[in-house]
Structure formats: C-alpha cells, structure tokens
Amino acid sequence: MAGNGRDHGGGLDAAAAEFGGARGDWLDLSTGINPESYPLTGLDLTPNDWATLPDKGADAALCAAARRFWRVPTQADVLAVPGCSAAIAQIPALKPAGQAEIALRSYNEHAAAFRFHGWDVQEQAPAPVARVVVHPNNPTGTFQPQIPPAPLTVIDESFCDIAPAQSHIAQARQPGHIILKSFGKFWGLAGLRLGFAIGNPKLIDSLRQRLGPWPVSGIALKIGEVALNDAAWADHTRARLTADAERLDRLMRRVDARPMGSCPLFRTYEVADAGQLHHQLAQHKILTRVFPYSRTWIRLGLPPQRQWERLEAAL
C-alpha cells in the first residue's frame, strides 16, 4: 500500500495479484513480526472466554503482568489497547494541536495521525509541542539513547523487547510521556491486536476514556497475561532472534547488501537496486518491503526455521 504516505508491510493479496499464486504460496518477509510465535497450545481457553464480555479482573491481571515484565515505574499507569495503532490514532488528541517533531523515515502512522488531528508535522523543530521517537526506529533499526523531552513525548518501543536494557521505560514516570509497547511483534501474535500505552496517569486516563469500555478482547487479555509471565520464553527468543538476524546478514552479503541498525526482528539493507531485488524475490513468492522514499532500501523480516533454504535458493 503506497501513494498515500502510509505504506506498510504485508499486502499478500496485492502481491499475489501481481506475481501470481495464492496467499498460502507466499513467504511474507515484509513485516517485522517474530515468525516463531508464542505457543498457544496448552492454554486454558474455554467457550466462556469467547461468549462473555472481558471483565476488569482479566484486564487488571494483564496490566499487572505488563508492569512486571517491563519494570514499569510505580508512578506510571498501564493501559492495554487493541494494538498500538489504536493508541497512535488517538494520542494527538490528548493535547491541543501545535507543532510535532517526527522523523520522516520512520513508522508513518504517527505523522498521519498527528496531521489528521490538525498538527503541523516537521522532521526537525526547535521547540515542538510533541515529539515522537520510534525506538528502535522502523525501518532503520537504530536506537536513540537520548530523547529530549517535549510537552507530549511519545516513545514507540514496538520492537524494543529484543533489547530491554535499551528501553526508555523509566521515562514513563515523567509528565507528558507515553511509552508504546507492542505485543504482536516480539511474541509474533499480531493478529491478536494487543498493545500497551504506558505513561503519565493523567494522559493515560484520557486515552482510556477515548477508547471506551472493553477495548481489548477477553482472549487477548488471557493470552497476553500468560505470555508476559513467561520470562524463560522471552529470554530464549531473544537469543534465537539475534542468531537468526546474524544468519540473515551473512546470507544477504551474497547480493552485496549492507545492513542498517541492530534490530533482530527485521533488517533493512542498502542495495544497488531495491526494486530489482524485491522483484527477484517476488518471482519466488517471497515478499519483502521497499520504500517510496528510497531506491536502495529493502527490508526483510526473519523467515521461519523451515523456510531458510527457500530464501537461500531465491538469492
């Protein structure tokens, strides 16, 4: 999806229409979602979980697990949201519109949301009312150790669970700060539509009111709580993702690709002709992501373990 400033990964239907095949024939490497998702086998899901409205106890248990997992400061509030995109769409309404500083080559839903709410979005501003930083950045994979505060400071850490020591979660206690955490990326369950907004209680409560009652499904509440309490799985997954990202770097050197950043969930590479490589892989039913603002950038997520040989053959 391109042309409206809000291009994203995914889009298997469009890829299949252009290059042929059915969705099931494709290997989608266009997103940064963990291909070896959190196992759902053995979870105690009952028919009642599907049939009843989510209760406050399940929401409280999930948010308590999130607070422990991310070591959220006691002064900050935690809100479960139906995917970070739902929070991103509402955050600009938490302050009167002004000037917002948001990097151009970053996750583009932030700028789109601020513009929709009447903000003036600039890549650099001397004294912005709002500052949005994606950490690590998507698509460059770079971390930003220091983030100057603004009256509204949004730090999107959707991919930061691969490097918890680099998180800015301690800033969640500061006035005007909101930290976003994704569940879909690291745990590989993007279809569950679960995320978290963590920050100043006044801002978080205002966001809570805007989302209304029952924003997160009971199934998502239950699965999220179990997964966030599974520290051993998280530790093992970080090690595997790091090793797989290094394997992908070695493989991409065959086509003289130079990796950017250090996010193991995805790699953006500089190549001579990103469009040509994107097309070459698409002929093998492998979907990658290219960017409307760069002819040399191509992004690949990690393949599942059983699909590495397929990618190697296509290259």
How would you characterize this protein structure?
The chain is an alpha/beta fold and 315 residues long. The chain has ten helices and 13 strands. The chain has helices spanning 12-19, 47-51, 56-70, 84-90, 109-116, 201-211, 218-228, 231-252, 274-283, 308-314; strands at 27-28, 77-81, 99-102, 120-122, 130-134, 152-156, 177-182, 195-199, 258-260, 266-270, 286-287, 289-291, 294-301. A seven-stranded mixed sheet has the order 2-8-7-6-5-3-4, sandwiched between helices. It has a four-stranded antiparallel sheet with strand order 9-10-13-12, covered by helices on one side.
Task: Describe this structure in a few short sentences.
By secondary structure, the protein is an alpha/beta fold. Helices cover 33% and strands 18% of the residues.
Largest sheet: 7 strands, mixed
Tally of contiguous helical segments? 10
H/E element sequence = HEHHEHEHEEEEEHHHEEHEEEH
Give the total of beta strands: 13
Helix content: 25-40%
How does the helix and strand content classify structurally? alpha/beta
What is the CA-CA span between the terminal residues? Answer: 25 Å
Unreliable residue stretches: 1-5
> What is the averaged pLDDT score?
94
The neighbouring-strand order within the major sheet is 2-8-7-6-5-3-4
Overall morphology: globular
Q: What proportion strand?
A: 15-25%
